[in-house]
Amino acid sequence: MRTDDMTASGALVFYSDFDDFDTWRQALRARLPGLRILHSSEVEDPAGIHYALAWKPPAGFFGRMPNLRLIINLGAGVDSLVGRDDLPAGVPVTRITDPDMARMMAGYVLFAVLRHARDIPWFEQAQRRGEWAYRHPRAPGDTRVAVLGLGELGACAAHELQRQGLTVLGWSRSPRAIDGVQCHAGMETLDAVIGQADILVVMLPLTEQTRGLLDRQRLLRLPRGAALVNVARGALVDQAAMTELLHSGHLGAATLDVFEREPLPADDPLWRMENVLITPHLASVAIPASAAAQIADNILRVSRHEAPRNQVDPARGY
Ligand code: NDP
């Protein structure tokens, strides 16, 4: 058996403006003791780098490394990666699909959906007015929640939502089956799904097919007063139309973690809307302690000349 059958050798480069390098280095080192793990600022010999673990590295980053064998996207969404022109041909790209990340995302979605289902924004506004404003709660099953995207994250969220007794519809490209969720597939079913949603949760990847999917016409198909939760990517939704419909009341409320431009510009009207809750793109993150295992496994697979798992299909865009 060659040594790299047991442990990968060579070097990995890390890049992220958001994630803590030392935590990742420790988590990976515990599983891959033979691998040198370098922050991008420490790389002196780019030709010695075989693996890259990166989130939104600067343009030209990969082009400097002629011997890359694997690119690991430090996150679930790969839209900013697959469109780059410096991806080396023939080098597999993987992403993180970690159960802990899915659980963290499901927690955010559950919070946002229940907040709308229980009229919490309405009570928050009444509280600011000092008003004891009784509004009788609806039965959970009377609130219909549509989850667009039933992948690693969407399926977990849909499962958790149906456990609350909410009526849950799901939508994906190919047919899916999730216990307790009414699953639909394909463009021809989208408008009917949206038309039934008291709360619409967007959990799709951003691709050529999904960019601008929730345009003005589709948002108008939502029942009047519906709430929108976007935890996927801002560019899936026509933000100007969404803002206008939040003003007009056609959209009753929104919980938004992602935006067409991030950070959301200080003068954006969304900041000042009472019916909008804004969080700065953190609904879920990759968690080193749990994600290190699959990253290490993929590095070992590649070092044994096997195909890595969780590969991104650049043609499909996710
Ligand atoms: P997956 O790739 O696992 O799943 C994507 C889902 O979307 C699948 O069900 C897929 O259908 C469906 N889909 C893709 N294209 C279409 C289409 N054209 N029409 C209908 N359905 C489609 O993604 P994840 O669940 O891991 O992640 C979803 C997104 O969440 C990421 O791409 C990322 O943008 C975002 N994200 C946001 C975070 C945040 O903090 N805000 C954190 C992490 C991710 P099918 O099942 O047929 O393949």
Structure commentary:
- With 318 residues, the protein is α/β, with parallel strands linked by helices.
- Helices cover 30% and strands 18% of the residues.
- It is built from 9 helices and 12 strands.
- It has helices at 21-31, 79-82, 99-117, 120-128, 152-163, 187-195, 216-221, 239-248, 288-303; strands spanning 11-15, 36-39, 49-54, 70-73, 93-95, 144-148, 167-172, 181-185, 199-202, 226-230, 251-256, 276-278.
- It has a 7-stranded parallel sheet with strand order 8-7-6-9-10-11-12, sandwiched between helices. A 5-stranded parallel sheet has the order 2-1-3-4-5, covered by helices on one side.
- Strand 6, helix 5 and strand 7 (167-172) form a beta-alpha-beta unit.
- Helix 3 (99-117) packs across helix 5 (152-163).
- The longest helix is centred in the middle third of the chain and has 19 residues, at 99-117.
- The chain is elongated, with a radius of gyration of 22 Å.
- Mean pLDDT is 96; it is low at 1-5.
- Bound molecules: NADPH dihydro-nicotinamide-adenine-dinucleotide phosphate.
- Residues 75-77, 97, 149-154, 172-174, 176, 203-207, 209-210, 231-233, 257-258, 281-284, 318 line the site of NADPH dihydro-nicotinamide-adenine-dinucleotide phosphate.
